[in-house]
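Hi there,

I know you've been waiting on this one. I reran it after we fixed the sequence typo, so this is the corrected version. Both the input and the resulting structure follow.
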Amino acid sequence: MEKSTQKLIWLAIFGFGMANVESAVVVYLRFLYYPGGFAFPVVQTPMTTTLVELGREAATILMLYAVARLTYKKALHRFCAFIYLFGVWDIFYYVWLYVFLGWPESLLTWDILFLLPLPWIGPVLAPVLVSVAMITAAVLIIRLEEGGIRFYNPFPLWLITIFAGLVIILSFIIDFRVVTGGTMPVSFKWGIFLVGLGIGVGVFVGALVKTIKNNCKT
């Protein structure tokens, strides 16, 4: 088995296990605050619980980054490992919740996705689409790079990619007052989300095509 494949498998195993831990914590929280099942409007939890949750989410990101950093030496590979881990963790988080609670009922079920720096909300389908895109991009880049093909990633493309990510995040946090104000979500900003996702995917596909062309010339 190729070395890159082994690493990706073990990273996936870590993400799978971490998703189980994360979902188990959420199961306990829902038993405490949503005994009848999670639904909006959101229950306002004590400040201590909120701070603990913020810390847990920050620690989750740190753990994913730490594993990615230990797995690869090159900065691009570490970034790819991080988004790969994030995607696997995020998808299996919902898989485990469905196993434990039979939730979400569908991919269009609303959820609180994240709390930092503001609450993120949206239908489950949105983060799953982002996760699939991140996993796909990460695997392709790592396989190309470890196969001796340098991936085309100039600085301007990084700026556009960051912009695309910020647009996606905006679609999640634009209605954060649904959480802080204890109201019901009305409609997800699919237009903003798809613009961000489209830019990100477009940049990656363009870079992939450029990479293949450069490799054919050599």
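Quick highlight: The first helix runs from residue 3 to 33.

Best,
R. S.
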